[in-house]
């Protein structure tokens, strides 16, 4: 069994930034990343990180591993972690993987991200990450000066949408996707259920409703429901990992979870899910791991 100072589950901005900080602190690190496409695979680019703005997610990972290779402390394992078994001898974890090859690590960082619940709508997957976006700060620039639709059943969010997104579009309407609005939202509102999306190669053209109506739009802001990845759900069920009511991993503000020696960073702990926020969270987790080791 291979031994590491830290096992990082997930190879996105949070996990890779933590791997860099730990590598430069001479910690031997295993980064476990599922060979399946990452959650942001459909994104046209990573934004907000100076010097890397606009690079594709694949290029971001390639550059990150090129940087990590200089230190020789981090190893990539393209496999999925399915369980963490606390070492009964007094510290550390056995990291169980889907291919059966276990690892042992003194500390583990969960940087798995979340699982988006994708609507089964014609055209959604083709547009997701390009003209259907989850975050205006991530993709608003690329969708500026287009007709926007905001898909939400949250009346407060709906009311502020035209002002909140005015920098990117002066034509913003709200789709409640079949939900009855709570009173007058003060914004143009479409209440019919969405049944499909018209697009040209992933470039949204219009929204089709159940009643046959077609509403022309160029961009949808759609913040999808999310659920934890299977590993996190299993740890919550079997290992005492505490989750918040909204299913994100509960931490103490320094990326420590309820399980001693287990940390969490990035999209697993917050709905604020930009690349730079995740990277900062990964750095915080790495510093806390090092501090806890020397306490």
Automatic annotation (TrEMBL):
<feature type="domain" description="FAD/NAD(P)-binding">
    <location>
        <begin position="186"/>
        <end position="279"/>
    </location>
</feature>
<keyword id="KW-0560">Oxidoreductase</keyword>
<keyword id="KW-0285">Flavoprotein</keyword>
<dbReference type="InterPro" id="IPR023753">
    <property type="entry name" value="FAD/NAD-binding_dom"/>
</dbReference>
<dbReference type="GO" id="GO:0004791">
    <property type="term" value="F:thioredoxin-disulfide reductase (NADPH) activity"/>
</dbReference>
<feature type="domain" description="FAD/NAD(P)-binding">
    <location>
        <begin position="4"/>
        <end position="141"/>
    </location>
</feature>
<dbReference type="Pfam" id="PF07992">
    <property type="entry name" value="Pyr_redox_2"/>
</dbReference>
<dbReference type="InterPro" id="IPR036188">
    <property type="entry name" value="FAD/NAD-bd_sf"/>
</dbReference>
<protein>
    <submittedName>
        <fullName>Pyridine nucleotide-disulfide oxidoreductase domain-containing protein</fullName>
    </submittedName>
</protein>
<dbReference type="InterPro" id="IPR050097">
    <property type="entry name" value="Ferredoxin-NADP_redctase_2"/>
</dbReference>
